[in-house]
Amino acid sequence: MTAPPAGPTPPPTRRQELSGWGHRPVSVATVVGPEGLDAAIHAAGDAGSPAARGVIARGSGRSYGDAAQRAGGVVVDMTSADRILLDPAAGVVDVGPGAQLADVVGSILPHGWGLAVTPGTRRVTVGGAIANDVHGKNHPADGSLGSWLDRVDLRVPSGETLRLDPGDEALAATLGGLGLTGVITGARLRLRRVESGWMLVDTVRTPDLDATLAALDEAVRTGRGRHHVAWLDLLGSGRGAGRGRGAARGVVTIADDAPVEAVPHGLDPLARLPEPRLTAPTWLPSGLLGRRRIAVANAAKWRRTPREERGRPVRLDGFTYPLDIVDEWSRAYGPRGMLQHQMAVPPGAEHVLRSTIARVVAGRLPVLLAVLKPLGDGRGLMSFPIRGWTLAMDLPAAADGLAEVLDDVDADVAAAGGRVYLAKDARLRPDLLPAMYPQLDAWRAIRDRLDPDHVLASDLAVRLGLLTNRNSGA
Amino acid sequence: MRDATGRGQTAVLLGGTSDIGLAVLRAIVSAHGGRVVLAARDTERASTIAATLPLPAEVVAWDAARPDDHEAVVAQCVEQLGDIDVVVVAAGVLADTGEVRAEPELAHTMAVANYAGVVSTLERLAGMMRRQGHGLIVVLSSVAGERVRASNYAYGASKAALDGYAQGLGDALIDDGVDVCVVRPGFVTSKMTEGREATPLSTTPDAVAVATRRAVAKGRRTVWVPGAFRWVMLAMRLLPRAVLRRLPI
């Protein structure tokens, strides 16, 4: 459910069913291109028009939930606004909001530049990346995308385009602001020098959660590696999963940029990353990714992983973007869709990680992918990262008992001073939002100044009560 | 707005005093921050029930037999809730053939309460949900509508009509972001069936609610409760009428 089909003369508007990466929830909106933005904002004052229900920008539709859709409203598809202009001497790139990070990387890598911060998929647009203040596996070292933004151009509903610098409160509200402060029309990103499109990767197997946390903590503290991530098996039937303290065996991965010498012989170190050759078809049924199959795959992965390994060269797409190997991979969950739950909890709240794992195991939820990363300090009023840990879990959206178990998990997270990542959210309890994001009121105040007539709204914003003075109707 | 597991935040229950309807409502509306409207003829009874619900519930007077009021009823629901995420249709009157013979007007009453009045209201609600661009309509049908039998033909016919309407409506709304889920329970031990003898494969309001919740999460458009009825009714549809007529059902 992503961008409209490309063509010589795309239709100016049409009603389209939209959803996020998890294909749930779904709503129907009128979709226009960037050239339709002005008309949409203008129509928002007309009570009978779809725009009165809300206008929101959309990129690649890679948010897992309903952040980039508006039921009965107008969605502005910004993917055609995809210019990329690199200044190779200064190490900055000017980009349109619709440019995918994949294309940005493709343009800059041959010149020896890289993105310091990139999320686990390169298919997100720059606009989407800013709206969610994305982070990667190197957050403690390099921060989130917001740390590398020199400038953002923001079109607000009054008609003005504001040029935002770091330090502007409007930028602090736009970073992680989920498209609700205005429509991003451009940005300037600061880049990092890279010698190659490769990383050197250390791997270690860990028997339980305690060992995983210890390994990650030690690596971050001692400055070993720049990227840190752990894959967790929450379906194992061995000694690990579900029993006692520190359940869940894992594989910890620590990586750093690879110097030119480390790149395998004969390969161009700055070669463009290949495009995926496989796209998951739309007709895959639900139930392919069952608990048992994934448990078997997890066990195979565990056995295949060396107990410990150091310095293996891995190309950027293999380390940073493993899921991009198959395009549209979330279709593998079938029409019933998937959801991802991602939390951040502060140091000292590791018990929430344990209790979450205990809850999902007790509820027999099929957690088909679980990933743990350390986080450093955050920025942006509604940005997700806070110093501590982040745990992300992928699940089929129709799993029995899912809603109730995750409601309980969210209560634990909020009580511990943590939060849920809104870029992934599709079912958070709205009553927990203020506790999870203490800067919510400050953010609302800035948003109300940027959008006083409440033109901008998304299904996620309405569902979670993010906006003031706006009921869910037109 | 509905979430990824199919739960809604706001809901209207047509037939606001129905045991099954209330059970389905509790299963489908999020316990945290959900709000509902009970649309009922017996507003006093509905208010008593509303006070016992774990989430805020308003009562709106709704009589299936007064179609001229239905536009205003829908407007009241929108005023209370804003967007309506879920509509649960649980209105119904049950009378078997013996009772209809004693009071012939009951056949017409059921046709209106179970079908015509519901249609009049649902058309307006469906139109509103199309403009909303999202929504779920849960229609409580019955196995009695699948193969209408002599023992309760007037009731069965009204449910058959409702079932057909709900399926057609679901197909008509397929591109509008609105889902329709038709639930077909067997005999449900509830207030409506009090004093009647349960048939085999009877079920309870809570079982219907659980089955509906699961179906909604999976995006299923028809649900049989208990599931075995799918095969039982298939067999009954294949039976020659002469045989069916003689069965003690």
Folded structure, characterized:
The complex is a heterodimer of chains A (474) and B (249). With 474 residues, chain A is an alpha+beta fold. Chain A contains 13 helices and 21 strands. In chain A, a hairpin with a 5-residue loop joins strand 8 and strand 9. In chain A, helix 9 (350-362) packs antiparallel against helix 10. The longest helix of chain A is centred in the middle third of the chain and has 14 residues, at 291-304. Chain A is globular and about 65 Å long. Chain A starts with 12 loop residues before the first strand and ends in a 10-residue tail after the last helix. Chain B has 249 residues and is an alpha/beta fold. Chain B has a 7-stranded parallel beta sheet, with helices on both faces. The interface between A and B is medium-sized, with 42 and 28 residues.
Describe the structure concisely.
The complex is a heterodimer of chains A (474) and B (249). By secondary structure, chain A is an alpha+beta fold. Chain A contains 13 helices and 21 strands.
Descriptive keywords:
heterodimer; A: 474 residues; alpha+beta; 5-stranded antiparallel β-sheet; B: 249 residues; alpha/beta; 9 helices; 15% strand; globular
Instruction: Give the overall form of chain A.
Output: globular
Distance between the termini of chain B: 43 Å
Count of β-strands of chain A: 21
Question: Major β-sheet of chain B, in short?
Answer: 7 strands, parallel
Tell me the span between the first and last alpha carbons of chain A. Answer: 24 Å
Strand content of chain B: 15-25%
Radius of gyration of chain B: 17 Å
Helical stretch count of chain B? 9
Name the overall outline of chain B. globular
- Number of helix segments of chain A? 13
The largest β sheet of chain A comes out as: 8 strands, antiparallel
| Average pLDDT number of chain A | 90
> Which stretches of chain A of 5+ consecutive residues score pLDDT under 50?
7-11, 238-246, 470-474
Percent range of helical residues of chain A? 10-25%
For the biggest β-sheet of chain B, the strand order reads 3-2-1-4-5-6-7
Average pLDDT reading of chain B = 94
- Radius of gyration of chain A from the CA trace? 21 Å
Given helix and strand content, the structural type of chain A is alpha+beta
Q: Give the DSSP E fraction of chain A (strand runs of 2 or more residues).
A: 15-25%
